[in-house]
Amino acid sequence: MADVMTRDQRLVLWIAILASFVSFLDGTVVTVALPAIQRELGGGLSTQQWVVDAYLITLGALILVAGSLSDVLGRLLVLRIGLIGFGITSIAIAAAPTAEFLIVARALQGVAGALLVPSSLALITANFRDAAQSRAIGIWTGATTGAMIAGPVLGGVFVDLLSWRLVFLINVLPLAATLLLLHRLGHADHRREGARVDIAGALLCTVGLGGSVFALIEQPTYGWSSPVIWLPLTIGLASFAGFLVRQRLAAQPMMPLDLFRSRNFWTGNLATAFIYGALSLNGFVVGVYLQQGAGLPATLAGLASLPSTLIMILFSSRVGTLAGKVGPRLFMTVGPIVMAVGALLLLTVSRDFSYWWQVLPSVLVFGAGLTLTVSPLTSAILGAIDESRSGIASAVNNAVSRVAGLLVIATLATILGGSLDLDGFHRAAVVTAILLAVGGVVSFLGIRNRMRTSAPTRPA
User: Fold this and answer.
1) Which of 72, 96, 175, 303 has the fewest CB atoms inside 10 Å of its own CB, making it the most exposed?
2) From CA 404, how far away is CA 276, in angstroms rounded?
3) pTM to 2 decimal places
4) Fold of the domain spanning 7-198+252-446
């Protein structure tokens, strides 16, 4: 039967899930550990922002390079390098003696993480076809997005019972398991003749993001008139403009601008920017406020998101399959709007705090909307591009989602009104809902369902 996976397809799916799992896990598990990191290593809101954004700067900038590296070195080799690098930097973070050391180690971890997700999705698109591909992406989405939400749960348990340092070693087993499965897969690696890495583009993108984010995070401290702020911001914006020009002119760009000629691709990425910016904002604010504002221990703050995890695990595969049959537009429209309603339910949180009546309804509605959104969004974007370019297409989409989160976290002080108190928490909930609603409207106006033809799945 067409929906039965071969042995190699099952291995590929597990490899893709586990490799992405460690990147998503470390991207979210840190949120619940931020108060403990601040207590031990010092620093205020800006330090917490840097712990998150140092990872996202290098991840967002270099995730595009992963597509080119995969062409030059091969997908499987790039995946192995990323897994090993991720393990080494995780150990360095766990041993960090100062906040500055931890931030640098997080930036290096982002470099390794940039090699994981695009290669993982490219493996899926190369080994599955049509409705089976949508189903595989649905399974991948449920597991990896579940990891994004489950991260705070695991992190909270480790923070309360052991140490925040051990939070960053949670990924040791998934890393080892993925390397073992790669060995068992035994596929020959594929390299593209004449492929090159756009080093100049990578440097321009990194400087562009780094300078802009530095200015946004430190602006509340120094003010816009300070050269400490406007000079990095000017350099950052000029570098990013140079990056776009470079992509237009380079023979082998790391982000081919012609990809954006596809309506579903550019619309899907625009929706991604709003939706994933909102997800990053919601995850950061809820994870930190439940501890510092509501007074919950890290474990309970992490467990607060568990219902969303269960919804994702139970229904993402089914949503992926259904979206593969009827098209992604309805799901990408309704899902973000449902999430926006869930975010607005957080306005019921008051000084007389109750998780069951003030937070749980939001978590349930938010989880339902997230499940409706993520798998169809991924399928719509990758389905808009020829399979031979799936690696770079997934890299661009992942870069967009990470950069969106990066910029939202960088502007956190402005969104919150200066501090993460109850008023700041409510402001963040409203901004989250607005971003999500815009993402839904963009999807409704821009996404088009494509007619699919059924074909048997086959391994690459």
Assistant:
1) 72
2) 6
3) 0.79
4) Growth Hormone; Chain: A; (1.20.1250)
